[in-house]
Amino acid sequence: MKKLMHILMLSCKKASELIDKKLLVKLSVKENMMLQIHTGMCDACKSYQKQSKTIDKLLENYFANPQATIQNIELKERIIEDLPKE
């Protein structure tokens, strides 16, 4: 049983590699199962997976429409300028 657990359990390093790989290509059934087991028990890797997805989506949106991001920065600067000074 201990040998089986050692085979199924991933290190955090290997789990982070699979998380990054999953953003680029489809994982095999074995890799996906091992990653699900690991992230089910490891809060740090679960957080890393969530953050990686968010960053990937933000970058994807930025490169799809960089002009919108520039407009958001300009809007933020205008809002800050309009805030009352203490």
Strands, total number: 0
Distance between the termini: 65 Å
Mean pLDDT: 84
Relative strand content = under 5%
Radius of gyration: 20 Å
- Shape verdict: elongated
Indicate the structural class: mainly alpha
Question: What is the helix content?
Answer: over 70%
Explain this structure.
The protein has about 90 residues and is mainly α. It has one domain. About 85% of the residues lie in helices and about 0% in strands. The protein contains five helices and no strands. The chain has helices at about 1-10, 10-25, 30-40, 45-65, 65-80. Helix 2 (about 10-25) packs parallel to helix 4 (about 45-65), helix 3 packs across helix 4 (about 45-65) and helix 4 (about 45-65) packs across helix 5 (about 65-80). The longest helix is centred in the middle third of the chain and has 22 residues, at about 45-65.
Task: Provide a concise account of the structure shown.
The chain has 86 residues and is mostly helical. 84% of the residues lie in helices and 0% in strands. It is built from five helices and no strands.
Topology record:
Blueprint: H1 2-8, H2 12-24, H3 29-41, H4 43-64, H5 66-82
Helix pairs in contact: 2-3, 2-4, 3-4, 4-5
Supply the key terms.
86 residues, mainly alpha, elongated, single chain
